[in-house]
Every structure is written in C-alpha cells, then in structure tokens.
Amino acid sequence: MNKNDAYGLADTVQMKKPHACKTNDWEILRVGADIRLKCMGCGRIVMMPRAEFTHKLKKVLTKANDPVNVKKKFYVPKDHIIRPDFA
What does DSSP assign to residue 57? Predict the structure, then answer.
C-alpha cells in the first residue's frame, strides 16, 4: 500500500504511538510538504514533515469524502429519539 495516496484533507488517521492525552486519533488539517494534524482528544495542533508523518502513520480510520461517513453524522441511536406522550 502506498501511504502517500492513502490519506487526504479532513481524514481521520491513527498514528503508531498515542499522544500525551492517550489518544491515537488525529484529523488532517493541511496536506503539503508539511502535514498539520489536530488531536481528536485534546485539540492540540501539530505540524510535521510529510516523510515523518508517513513513517508514523498506522492506518486511515475515516475518509472525508466517503459517502458512508456522510450518513453516519445524521445517525441517531434509537434510545436518543424522543417520542411525544399523547396520553
């Protein structure tokens, strides 16, 4: 797998080692010669060179342009739906 083509802007990725807040999930904010990442746990923003990023990348969790992920943000679990009481 070529890791250069595996990620894009606004994707959520998992790194090999966790952040200080014990979270491995990061959102990609900028793609170029440097990659800007935002920690999904504490919100810290980190910038690193692309070569270092591809070395530390474990896997891509969600793709931003995937139509399946668009549907998930509108999903409401059954127990969170409020039903009116007409009794």
Answer: E
What CATH number does the domain containing 11 carry? 2.40.10
In-domain check, residue 40:
yes
The model carries a pTM of 0.70
Per-residue pLDDT of the chain (87 residues; tens, 9 = 90+): 455 568 888 889 999 999 998 989 999 999 999 999 999 888 899 999 999 999 999 999 888 777 666 666 666 666 777 777 776
Single-letter residue type at 51: A
Domain count, the chain: 1
Tokens of 13: 């990725």
